[in-house]
């Protein structure tokens, strides 16, 4: 009985370990399949040092085995007779100091140039990245004049959309505490520190969606501070840029009077614009509708063009279990209306936050009626058009 129990316990422990390992392999973050130049540089060094460690491990295990065999007690030995006792052996000590020193110096010589090269500021396309509790904002310098404050500059969140094969220069800022930016398939980790600007280059050799997240503990919803790089072909990227600009213009067009969209816009104006910007409509300059807390909440101008919301914790559009997007009979992506609606109703329930401390969104459960929520959903759906998606979802493979 006892043996049977022990065996069963061992089997389930093994199964547990297997599950754990499988969990690592199927997770969204994958550091073992680099697709960008910088990520490959890191991967190469990681593999080299890994194999060196394997070599050292095998050598040490073999030496221990050989010594155990060679110097084991023999039946003819007198148990009271100790072998000669040695203290200090210059040759041996120099050898086992020298070998690790040579190995470590070798690794340093290989690694250091890469460490410096990775932190170098490039001269390609610039995107400003702002980390805050607990989501990422991305700003595109559309007219390439070096600042990110022009009306036409594109501000988005969660999805970092970039063209394939191009070196992208990220300017990393933090608006509150220390975060760390990591999209493992495109580059290593880079800390995001308040009061400082860190530069980080990413690139991808293939289109796809590559997942990332904050990797420096930054408070309550740190684990929910995710993001994704959407890597598009050059033509698709240009189309995305054009659609973002079209979205900015469309947001300014008047809504049909008496429609659900117009009713939603009125509610939005009452409850939402103290935090959320819609370019040209609800921003600090327009219509005297001042934004009390600009920058504390995602810019919603092109909300519908993002694949995810709330720090990429929720999908904007429905997918099947292989992460393939579902499409309706009209060929369009199907909005994840249930979760978006629930988010607007009671966001803190869907993502731990401290709205009282300007971290996250308010709870509107007691404020908005079902009808209000429906109208708000109608209005939100006017903000931007479908995301431009890569033909293959390479990152999710
Ligand atoms: C107190 C400020 C505040 C108010 C008021 C507010 N929000 Fe938010 N909202 C936020 C913050 C902060 C986030 C990001 C939360 C996160 O990802 O952790 C957010 C996220 C969102 C998102 C997801 C956007 C994205 O890209 O991730 C939507 C949609 C949204 N809010 C809609 C609304 C609507 C509709 C209202 C009005 C009924 C509203 N919000 C009122 C602060 C606010
Ligand atoms: Cu963080």
Provide key terms for this protein.
5-stranded mixed beta sheet; Immunoglobulin-like; 7 helices; alpha+beta; binds heme C; binds copper (II) ion; 12 strands; single chain; elongated; 397 residues
Helix and strand element order = HHHEEEEEEEEEEHHEEHH
How much β-strand is present in the residues?
A: 15-25%
Fold-level CATH name of the domain at 243-389: Immunoglobulin-like
Query: Structural class, please?
Result: alpha+beta
**Strand order in space, largest sheet:** 3-2-1-5-8
CATH architecture label name of the domain at 243-389? Sandwich
Level-1 CATH class name of the domain at 243-389 = Mainly Beta
What number is the mean pLDDT?
88
CATH homolog superfamily of the domain at 243-389: Cupredoxins -  blue copper proteins
Can you offer a commentary on this structure?
- The chain is an alpha+beta fold and 397 residues long.
- It has a domain at 243-389: Immunoglobulin-like (Sandwich).
- It is 37% helix and 15% strand.
- The chain has helices at 2-26, 37-70, 90-119, 234-252, 260-271, 337-350, 370-380, and strands at 125-132, 135-140, 154-157, 159-163, 168-174, 179-182, 190-192, 198-202, 208-214, 226-232, 308-309, 314-315.
- The strands form three sheets. It has a five-stranded mixed sheet with strand order 3-2-1-5-8. Strands 4-10-9-6-7 form a five-stranded mixed sheet. A two-stranded antiparallel sheet has the order 11-12.
- A hairpin with a 4-residue loop joins strand 11 and strand 12 (314-315).
- Helix 2 (37-70) packs antiparallel against helix 3 (90-119).
- The chain is elongated and about 105 Å long.
- The model is unreliable at 22-26 (pLDDT under 50).
- The structure holds heme C (HEC) and copper (II) ion.
- Residues 134-135, 157-158, 268, 271-272, 274-276, 296-298, 303, 306, 309-311, 344, 351, 353, 355, 360-362, 364, 376, 380 line the site of heme C (HEC).
